[in-house]
Amino acid sequence: MLTANNITFAVGQKRLIEDISVSFGPGKLHLLIGPNGAGKSTLIKVLARLLRPQNGSIHYEGVDIRDAREADLAKHRAVLSQAIEVAFPLTVREVVMMGRYPHFGGRPGPADESIVDEVMAHFDVTEFSARDYQTLSGGERQRVNFARVLGQLWRDGHENRSQDGSSRPTCRYLFLDEPLTFLDIRHQIDFMKKVREFTNLPDVVTVGVVHDLNLATRFADQLVLLDGGRVIAHGAPAVVLTQDNIRKVFTVEPTFIPAKHSAMHIIFD
Amino acid sequence: MLIALAVLTLLVLAASIRYGAIDFSVAQISHALTSLYPGQPEPTLDQRIFLELRLPRAIMCLLVGASLGVGGTLMQALFRNPIVEPSLVGTSSGAAFGSALFFVLGGVLHIGTSLFALPVAACMGGVLSTYLVFLLARSREDGRASIVMLLLTGLAVNALFMSSIGFLQYLARDPQARSITFWSLGTLSGASWKAVEIVSISTVAGALIALRYAKQLNALMIGEEEATYLGVNVNRLKWIILSVNVVIVAVATAFTGVISFVGLIVPHILRMIGGADNRYLIVASALTGATLLTLADLLARIVVRPAELPIGIVTSAVGVPVFILLLRRRQYVF
Lengths: 269, 334
Description:
The complex is a heterodimer of chains A (269) and B (334). Chain A is an alpha/beta fold.
């Protein structure tokens, strides 16, 4: 469980997010939506403790993370950003292995090696294993990074698959900052399905930013609509994406049509 | 891989202690070494030349080469860019200026030029110039230094400190002036056992600390934000690595003067053969830096023997074309 209380983050005089209080429970997919400059990325960075808010507090399972050590936080909090550039020639496997860095001291152990194998297979990047990351396309890179980020949160195979919630260690927190940017439509859907699947685990809290309202509607359990650094609406997609809200926040005119896999499909005029 | 590099280092070391202004045979070397044991006859003149000049110089060369190699690796990892090295961001020239100033003032004010105070003065010069480069290269908008600004500012600050050394030379009386030239060109001819002691402490300690942070430096390769998400305290890491770098480079420079381009070329060659993992790169660049500088020193001693060239001239002659070649390859992000 992640709770944020009255958080405000400002750069100079400009408040990027203002007095936001939200909580995100495990096992559900939470997506942030809103127009450019609404504060979505800032909120993700504040929740993941890259940025420290001037006001308010953030708790992971009741523990304030303000003064948590980076190294401790990294064991159960991972963030997928967009467009990651690597400065030097690194193999794909080396990049994925970085996800395990918080979990070992000097050299990776056998468990780390097998987790890397597993996540690479899961994201279909095993064939790139020895390739130089710099030679991959944008979409391929994004898959490699998703493998890295999930590798960071991966617990051993058994724990990952158990859905019964019998053993519940501390929650794992996954943040996604516009992860779909470089993906084609097939990989966007594939990607969201994998996020969905991972989030179904009883101890995973996932909060992401997605621009495509239809993808958001289809995959999210909860949407948070932001505008001007404030929360406009929070709840199930059908509750948040009303005609009024879309008109007010995005200043476009929506038409709703029924959809097969989703609560609704939105067309914009 | 690392073992092969270590063997290569030892081979080059062996060549370096044999050849020079005068050549020593293996028998002479072993006699000289055994004369150190108690109860042996006093060393002859040749043996003393070997023990007091050749050997400390060879070991100094290894240490300084290792320092510069590791310094280059650290700078490149820190700036996520393969074309920076300590002499390009001002550290070396500042350290040389610190040493020269201390040397001249020590002479004028009769402070005495203690071997321990010299590296301290060099570190102060190195810190000053490095800080100056970063301060001036920082852009107004986001507070970060772009690599082009960094290189250009480094160029300017280097010129400033080099001409300051020239000015000191102009002021100084003749015998001093000759020693000052040495800091701007770089040479190992002043090596002594005392200097070896001091440089070995900074080199070994610096390399060990760097190795401890190698994994964190790896994480930095995918960006500062990402490194933070992987549990790295990025600001702390930057401070530690920059400090280690200034100390190892400045202490080496205090005794040998400015030796450019070793720190640039070494990590480069190693990345091409063994990849970019800093855990490997730090150890390998210490070994390769030692090997390359020893080769350069050997060359400096043999080409015009019995005289010798300043080693800085040799490394620049080899390093400048490589640097230009690297700049012209477009795969680097500026």
